[in-house]
Each structure stands twice: as structure tokens, then as C-alpha cells.
Amino acid sequence: MEIQHFKHEHPLTLEIMNPSEINSVSCHACKKRCIDLIYSCKVCGGYHLHKSCAELPEKITQHPFHPLHPLPLVFNNGRYACCGCGKWDRTLLYWCRACNFTLSPDCALRPTTKYEFLGEERIRHFLHDHPLDIMALRLVDMAEDDGDVCSACKKSCSGDISYSCQQCPNFKLHRSCAEELPRAIRHRVHPQHPMILRAKDRFFDRECVACQRTDNALTYRCSMCQIEMDPECALAP
């Protein structure tokens, strides 16, 4: 099977990675090792793409997070922060050059997904790298410092149904914070662009334009205008 990829002048052929070359061949798009199905250039000999990278859309138009302009796929050599989730990466991105608006492929292709169900009481949330499981409901004296604090709203998890990470004991989310907050909003304070729910960026410590707080782990942010609102203010009537 052959494709003509928009980033390369020659046709690319689908093949199974040779096990003897696993440690020496990297994908030209994401810079990670090639270990499975890859597209290779038979003319150049050293040009390879993961099948998953090669099949990413060349351009996304009318994205809910950035409907103003198309977002072309860019093979990136430097670090960038995804405007959708706030995570830093070094590889592929969808980028509006005019607005300097960036999205990772995961956020770009799953624009409204905050979480996915992995089982009856388990989810994967965009804020965290590991699966989260429902915690047993604990009713304790509110004056007692039990250490169970929601990583999103910074309020106690005591008495509320919450998710926790088995690998990171300090990461917890109220079920309401994990499941009910909208992924993107249009707010009357800032109607020009969507404001996207994302993790607070320690390199971008802006205060909420409504209450001036800076201590929330979650924020609604317009990356183009560099303004933020904490969820409580953003969703207030």
C-alpha cells in the first residue's frame, strides 16, 4: 500500500518494522521510535512515519476551540503548550500561525472529550495520565484534615463521590468536577472566542478576571487573549 504524504515528495510504502532496526529508526513526525507499522520512502531510504502519524488529517477546519481559521498539521521541532489541555509537547501539533493557537493531535481530534469510561467505576481524564477510580465515600468530620483534596477545585473530597489515581495518591477529582464541567464555553465577559477548560499552567499564572484568584488547578482560558476564569466564576448565573 502506498500513499503520497503532503510532507514528502516521494510515495511512502506501508511496511512492518524490521525488528533489527527498532532502536535505530525514528518517525520524522513525532520523533519517537518506530516499532510497528510504518510508512517508508523507498527513494530516500531514511524517511519513515508511524502509520498513525502519517494518517493524521493535513488540516482541520471549523474546530470548536478555534473556529476562526483552519489548523494545519505541523511537524514541530520545539516545545509548545497545547491550548486545549495545557500539556507541553515537542512533536506534532495543529497550529494557527495568525493567532499562535496550538492543539495537540489528541485534543484536536477529540475536541469535546473531557474523559472516557474505561469500566463501570473507572475513567481516563484529560487532566491526568493514569486511569482514575471511584473512591469509597468517606464521611468525616469537616474539621479533620484528611488530605483528600480535589485537584481541580481545591476543596475537600470528604462526603462527596470522587475519583482517585492508584499510582498518584494525591491526585483526586470530585465526580462533579471530572464529569460535569463543560469542555469549552462562550462567556459574556469574553464573547469573542471560546474559553477552553484546561489545567492551570504554572508558567502562565494569570488571575481569574472575575474574582482575581489564582489557586485553582482548573481554569477556562482564552489563549489568544490570555485571559482566564476559574470554573466557579465562569459558570455562575
UniProtKB/TrEMBL annotation:
<feature type="domain" description="DC1">
    <location>
        <begin position="189"/>
        <end position="234"/>
    </location>
</feature>
<feature type="domain" description="DC1">
    <location>
        <begin position="6"/>
        <end position="54"/>
    </location>
</feature>
<dbReference type="GO" id="GO:0008270">
    <property type="term" value="F:zinc ion binding"/>
</dbReference>
<keyword id="KW-0862">Zinc</keyword>
<protein>
    <recommendedName>
        <fullName>DC1 domain-containing protein</fullName>
    </recommendedName>
</protein>
<feature type="domain" description="DC1">
    <location>
        <begin position="64"/>
        <end position="108"/>
    </location>
</feature>
<keyword id="KW-0677">Repeat</keyword>
<dbReference type="InterPro" id="IPR046349">
    <property type="entry name" value="C1-like_sf"/>
</dbReference>
<dbReference type="InterPro" id="IPR004146">
    <property type="entry name" value="DC1"/>
</dbReference>
<keyword id="KW-0479">Metal-binding</keyword>
<dbReference type="Pfam" id="PF03107">
    <property type="entry name" value="C1_2"/>
</dbReference>
<feature type="domain" description="DC1">
    <location>
        <begin position="126"/>
        <end position="178"/>
    </location>
</feature>
<dbReference type="InterPro" id="IPR043145">
    <property type="entry name" value="Znf_ZZ_sf"/>
</dbReference>
<keyword id="KW-0863">Zinc-finger</keyword>
